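Re: beginner question about structure tokens

> Can someone show what the tokenized structure looks like for a real chain? I only ever see the sequence side.

Sure, here's an example I had lying around. Input first:
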Amino acid sequence: MASFLVKELDASLGVAGLYYLTSLAAPVVGYAVGARSDRTGRRMGLFRLCAAAGFVGWIGVAASTRLWMPFVIGVVLLGFAGAAGSQLFAAMHDEMTRRPSAANDGVVSIARMAMTSGWVIGPAAGTLVADHFGLREMLVATAVCCGAQIIPLGALKVAGPERATNPAGGEDTGGGAGKPGFRAMSGLLVFTGLYLCVYAGEPVKYAYLPIYMDEQLHFAAEVRSAVIGIQPLVELVLMPFVVMLAPRTGALWLMAGAAGCGVAANICFATMTSSVGLFAGQVLMGAVWAVFASLGIVVAQRLLPTAVATASAIFLSSPALSSALGGLAGGLGATAFGLPHVFFLPMSFGLIAVVGYIVMANSSNRRRSDATSPASDPLSV
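And the corresponding structure tokens:
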């Protein structure tokens, strides 16, 4: 996107970098769409609208002739594109609630693996399209992929969430849950805040690790690409094992361990000067995202079971906020500490997440020990 703004619309590098601040609209849009979904129960209808908005938005960006146009489109339309995914996970939750099975968490994991595969295939395919056809054509291809979601999924007839009963015993006439209060959402907000601490290291890594490897370590291009590319592959390999391990250890304990892997990874980035050390850091980061990609959405929905679309939207849109905050912190840290010591900054964020998830896991264990059944704890997986 930055290349498009610079080469096609004559933006400066500084202005092009500001484009990513448009992602700050995504959490707001995601919450609004999720709240409406929980009120009406119209998961797939909202999914179709969000996917269509994404298609129109990317077509609009590809056709932009003025620098301000992609910024406005990014705020007004593209925030809805990300909300489409949260509606799918909410619809999956509704269906799995009606048909409970021990394999349900595995189904969610498969869906998340598909999304992770997209992060592997998308950048490579986008680079090829841009090289062979052009940047505008690459954005058109992005629009086609966004709209193509509707073809296999948009025609599905998925029933909404089960309706609550009123105190008189009759069925509630509302389509879904009411708007949850702050107290009901507090656990989800704490969980997501800790996730932001884990995710904040990603924009720092992708911004500065390639520069560090190129300008200071003088690695060959093939080595730099291999170091960056190993993480999603490790993530895909580990995700099925995470799903099998979670019922034995508990999701939050796994997340505490994953956050600890992130701390160790950033120590590798900050102290290692060999390719082996940086590969080790990326393998550790693969373990981090294998855990959070497999279990994050499951835990988020169980922390707010009365409004799963809202929970899905808050969790899935939080990386946009974390990317902006992490990018800002990384820029200030790089200026203050330089390379590679800037990686001690996301390491400190990761330590906060480790402590927070341990506290949440201990609280979950106490609830289970006080309850008559482990199933009474929403975080037992």
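Each token stands for a local structural state, so reading them left to right follows the chain. The chain is about 80% helix and 0% strand.
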